[in-house]
Amino acid sequence: MNYEQLKNQTYRKYKKTGQVYCPYLKTKVKFTGNGFWHLIYTGRNEKRNISSQKMRFNLIQKFVCVIRLTTTLQEYEKNHDTLYYGFIAIIDGWKIKVIVKKVGNGVPFFWSIIPNWVTNRKRDKLLHKGNMEKD
Prior knowledge:
By secondary structure, the protein is an alpha+beta fold. The protein has one domain (3-126). Helix content is 31%, strand content 39%. It contains four helices and nine strands. The strands form three sheets. The protein has a five-stranded antiparallel sheet, covered by helices on one side. A two-stranded antiparallel ribbon has the order 1-2. The longest helix has 15 residues, at 3-17. The chain is globular and about 40 Å long.
């Protein structure tokens, strides 16, 4: 499947998800256009490389699952009126971090998926590490 096909297929799944209940936050997390945009860009006009985008697109079911099942917060960051919640899980051999963002009194929304490690039987391999706003 080429990049455009994968992006379009992922967008349809993402949009169809709409929102899911997060047990830790005790509320629904929305899947907004901001979150999908952040799968493609790191910041204003800073596009992620294609392989990074594809990896994130392929993890859509996993990040939805993390939000739906998580009962434990691993990271928390506050920046002015913006809150970032980081949830980490290992699903199907992938250690991933899912970031949920909440601005002011607004509704929490999916912000990012960070594929931290691919696990194997011999050792873990670090793939990505960074800040919660950009990643």
